[in-house]
Write the structure tokens for this entry.
Amino acid sequence: MIKDHSKHYNDLVHLIGELGEKIPDTIGGFNSLHKASTAEGVLTSKTKELIALGIAITVRCDGCIAFHVHDAIKAGASSEEIIETIGVAVMMGGGPALMYGCEALEALNQFIVLED
């Protein structure tokens, strides 16, 4: 199941930038929504990224998993918090979420290595 989540993340960043040149209002709007939605508030940015990761797993979005594992780590989430988030997503999404939870674990393992 080896997938290079860091490369996937970087490829998507590049492609989103390319789309931003072609449809700047749409991508700019999405980026503003993302920034506002994950900003510190009653919930911390870390908590919001963990929620986003749980949703990414249950809706089976590879790119979303790469982004939200990456961003959860940047927001200060520990490996243990990310793994517990995977567990909640599996409970909510069943067998398919378990498979994508494994993808999230693989992404975590890859990004942790890159952070060291």
